[in-house]
Input
Amino acid sequence: MNNKYKIVFIDIDGTLVNDEKIVPEENIKMIQTLKKNGIEVVLASGRPYHSIEKYSTQVGAIPYIIGSNGGIVANFVEDKKIFSTNIEKENALEIAKLIKENNIYFTVTISGKLLVEDEQFSMTRENRNELVLVNSLEEYLKTNDAPVIKFSLMDDKKENLQKVRKLVLDRFNIDATEVDEFMIPKKYRKAENNYKFPYVMDIMPKGISKAKAIEELCKYLGIEIAQTVVFGDGLNDIEMFNVGGYKVAMGNAADQIKELADVVTKTNNEAGVAYELNKIFGIDNIREKIND
Output
């Protein structure tokens, strides 16, 4: 086995899972094989960490997770936060007001939960078990002191999100991801034919990203950044690709991610994660190794 790399960071949507949000069996077997051979595997996602737990448990990539685009790093088995940050309450209230004034649908990540006012854009409890429905997000933020890790904004028009992104960056000492497509499984789409995915962006505390989270976890584990492998597909993976030791873009990745990658592998619908991990670590006969 290749001993150059000690830890693998894998994005979830568009990377670990296929377009129907199902983890290919090949990915599961490969991750279990790596763990059995002493390689740490960490899921790094824009999702709240409670949403990541189920995937991490399913594939055996426990105990560490990176959630909310780097807003939290945790050992969920021990329920221990290794690193976390949040948006100041006063700023969170003003940001929520600004989003509402621009008629943009948004969710709020509070710790491991996702707060919503109504179920849109696949934000359904059937699809996202970490969802919590509230009557008013603004009122909730006013009356509760739970730390806000990030806002996620969704809209059918890219320019609407770009406008709000500029307003937020101009007005607050805050960060926001580039506007990207939001992938929705077929069964949650409004129409089967000619379906156009909505757009999404995240608003987070200044300096927070998957890259920052990777650096914090590697420091905690005593692993060098050069010993990391990162897999991703979306624009919220750009910072992660700027620090990763070996960078793997999915075949379905955005062009910006492919340009930063050391290699472009197969798509998420072709179990590209398993395919490339096998090449990197020199593991063959996956089934036999798992059953040893």
Observations:
- DSSP finds eleven helices and 15 strands in the chain.
